[in-house]
Amino acid sequence: MTGFARTKSVALVGLDGHVVDVEADIGQSLPAFSIIGLPDQAVNESRERIRAAARNAGVKLPARKITVNLSPATLPKRGSHFDVAVVMAVLTAHGAIRASADTVYLAELGLDGSLRPVRGVLPAVHAAVLNGHPRVVVARENHEEARLVSGAEVTAVSHLAELLVMSGADPQLLDRVPMIDEPTDVRTDVADSPETPDLRDVVGQIEGRQALEIAAAGGHHLMMIRPPGAGKTMLAERLPGILPDLDDHQSLEVTSIHSLRGDTRCSALIRRPPLQAPHHSITTPALCGGGSGVPRPGAISLAHRGVLFLDEAPEFERRVLDTLRQPLESGTVTIARSQNVSRYPAKFQLVLAANPCPCGQAGGSGNRCTCTAQQRHRYFNKLSGPLVDRVDLQLRVPAVTYHELNSALGIPPEDSAAVASRVRAAREAQQDRLARYGVHLNSDIPGALLRKTLAPDRAAVHSLKKAMDNHTLTARGYIRVLRTAWTLADLSGAVSPTSDHVQLALFFKTTVTS
Questions:
Q1: Closest Cα partner for 414 from 426, 422, 425, 424?
Q2: Percent of the residues in the chain that have a pLDDT greater than 70, as a whole number
Q3: Helices 475-492 & 462-469, crossing angle to 10 degrees?
Q4: How confident is the model at residue 429 (pLDDT cuts 50, 70, 90)?
Q5: Cα separation, 267 vs 145, whole angstroms
Q6: How would you class 333 by CB atoms within 10 Å of its CB: exposed for 0-12, middle for 13-18, buried for 19 or more?
Q7: What is the CA radius of gyration of the chain?
Q8: Is the pLDDT of residue 412 over 80?
Q9: Distance CA 497, CA 479 (A)
Q10: pLDDT tens track for 202-213
Q11: Is the dihedral of CA 140, 304, 316, 199 positive or negative?
Q12: In degrees to the nearest 10, what's the CA dihedral of 69, 71, 77, 81?
């Protein structure tokens, strides 16, 4: 008895999903089970999981030569989520069931026949729907996540026997389905993150609050320098709270990254911009993504459409910081391996916080500082010039005075909701102006467009000419100052940047490096 059958699954390369044909052939040769099509170790080991799972579900694999091909054969296949697609193709080729060739299966098999959840279900289901295969079968624990994809027809199953009966097997197989206890641990979905800190908690810091509002309105990067206790961390942690909610496309991107990372199970789309604040001991693969086997997204991708906050930035290794330079320009991170190249989105707002010196006491009069000039130079040399040049807003955060701290008791500071409303209005103005050019934020305006179509008048940019002639402003810095000036104009309701807007943008760009 020979037979052939086909089912489908999805192979993920980065966030890009590729529909895979799982072809099974039953031959007349001596019993054997081989899987071809560039499978990794997890896929090869599925043979033993499938044999045990099928037996415990009430059926047995045929004692014949079983060949499974994962097509396209040139695409690497990684992960245990091919298990169910393989067993359904084999049993259909054997004639035991009638599985649909257009159904996509995404689940791992346990030895007892149970279907177990896998990471990356959201981007895999999204890829299946985009390729015209809306019918998807997943483990029950992945049901809520798979349903987030519009147009998907999701079937959730807890045991292989249930799936076999749905495909025409003997209903008595359901007697083999064990009673599985529900997990008793309480888990928190990504969408149910803690409440974002509010700006009303920040006392004083007029310039810091202004810089935060400008950064949020135009999507600009920010660097703050001041001794410990000035409020740099408080300001940075409150930036996500004044950013607008993510739209449907952005939410799907962000949630897909978290799904692929496997940090948590996603039962709802992430609507709020995320915040990532890694420790200064982080490695390059942890920051940018990588690892052995399948490259995983790093902290910069987890901060996609949100904020990446590097506190005590000079304490990070310089080579780790310099890996940010390419993602800051392109909005993506590319991880190259010998067999494939994975790309992850990394469109984030960078916030750097630093002390003025290793001991942190060089601010103000600097009388308490014990650092030498060489130590200060070595400390800030961790922040390379090309990296700092990519930061639009650079600010020396002043220390809060006794008067500011106590006067705030009578008049509470402005809260995040009030600032967020102005940020939304500024972004709406940007959308109206930039939509025709395919750009959404001032921070993304191409340099050629700024120099020609959206260039301010000559009087407004006179201060920039002087700064470039004095070599205090690079060509990249010139473009970034103009982008910030447009954001200042949007916040003030102006039609185009004035000389005051350009001078303030130049101040924020050069106040630290000058």
A1: 422
A2: 91
A3: 160
A4: very high
A5: 5
A6: buried
A7: 28
A8: no
A9: 13
A10: 877 888 899 999
A11: negative
A12: -80
**pLDDT above 50 (res 124):** yes
Structure tokens at 30: 């001596």
Whether 452 contacts 482, CB under 8 Å: no
Residue indicated by tokens 């630290």: 512
Q: How confident is the model at residue 359 (pLDDT cuts 50, 70, 90)?
A: confident
Largest CA distance in the chain: 90
- The structure tokens 């396209």 sit at 72
Q: Which pLDDT belongs to residue 405?
A: 63
Is the predicted pLDDT of residue 183 greater than 50, yes or no? no
Find all residues with CB under 8 Å of 291, minimum gap 6, and list them: 285
Q: Residue 466 to residues 272, 319, 485: CA-CA distances in angstroms?
A: 41, 33, 17
Alpha-carbon distance 281 to 311, whole Å? Answer: 11
Residue 190 or residue 491, greater confidence: 491
Instruction: Check if the beta carbon of residue 258 is closer than 8 Å to that of residue 119.
Output: no
How far apart CA 372 and CA 277 sit, in angstroms, is: 30
Instruction: State how far the Cα of 49 lies from the Cα of 35, in Å rounded to an integer.
Output: 13
Contact (Cβ atoms closer than 8 angstroms) between residue 464 and residue 471: no
8 A C-beta contact, residue 80 and residue 106: no
List CB contacts of 74: < 8 A, sequence separation 6 or more.
Answer: 38
pLDDT class of 408 with cuts at 50, 70, 90 = low
Residues in CB range of 373: below 8 A, 6 or more apart: none
3-state DSSP assignment of residue 91: helix
- Reading the block at residue 290, the tokens are 């990588």
Compute the distance between CA of residue 304 and CA of residue 332 in angstroms, rounded to an integer.
Answer: 9
How much is the mean pLDDT over the chain?
88
For residue 339, the model assigns a pLDDT of 67
The conformation of residue 82, written as its DSSP 8-state character, comes to: G
Shortest CA distance to 21 belongs to which of 31, 30, 11? Answer: 11
Map tokens 């981007």 to a residue.
Answer: 123
Query: What sign does the CA torsion over 209, 213, 216, 220 have?
Result: negative
pTM attached to this predicted model: 0.87
Which among 202, 387, 233 has a CA at the least distance from the CA of 312? 233
